[in-house]
Amino acid sequence: MALNKKSKKNAESMNSRLKLVMKSGKAILGYKATVKSLRRTKSKMILISSNCPPLRKSELEYLAMLAKTPVHHYTGDNSALGTACGKFFNCSVVSVLDGGDSDILTAKE
């Protein structure tokens, strides 16, 4: 039970950090744009939803490893990730280009 509360708290803090990034920083949503930013090494961090297809997830992790970019596996599915970004559509991948006022790039969970 304590583990469940802790994971819920981590998800809520990641949601609030992501909301602050969308407001004050720069982030791009979607697979194609994320791959382009990883190839150009513009991304500071990428977030991958839990229901992203395995082949796509492994490709993103490989590109992130080449670009030396940290990867965060988001606990929610793609609709929860889109909602956390303040959008009304599903999004399986988010790439953070600039953290803004948020501490999403420095926080380790």
Summarize the entry for a quick read.
The protein is α+β, with helices and mostly antiparallel strands. 49% of the residues lie in helices and 16% in strands.
Question: How is this fold's topology laid out?
Answer:
Blueprint (H helix, E strand, L loop, with lengths): L1 H23 L1 E4 L1 H9 L5 E4 L5 H14 L3 E3 L4 H7 L8 E6 L11
Parallel strand pairs: 2-3
Antiparallel strand pairs: 1-4, 2-4
Helix pairs in contact: 2-3
Structural features, described:
With 109 residues, the protein is of the alpha+beta class. Helix content is 49%, strand content 16%. A 4-stranded mixed β-sheet has the order 1-4-2-3, sandwiched between helices. The chain is globular and about 35 Å long. It starts with a helix and ends in an 11-residue tail after the last strand.
Question: What is the H-and-E element order?
Answer: HEHEHEHE
Tell me the fraction of residues in β-strands, as a range. 15-25%
Distance between the termini: 19 Å
The order of strands across the largest sheet is 1-4-2-3
What percent of the residues sit in helical stretches (DSSP H or I)?
40-55%
Low-confidence stretches: none
DSSP E strands, number: 4
**What does the radius of gyration come to?**
13 Å
**Helix-strand category:** alpha+beta
Shape: globular
Total of DSSP H or I helical runs spanning 4+ residues: 4
Mean pLDDT, to the nearest integer, reads 91
Report the major sheet: 4 strands, mixed
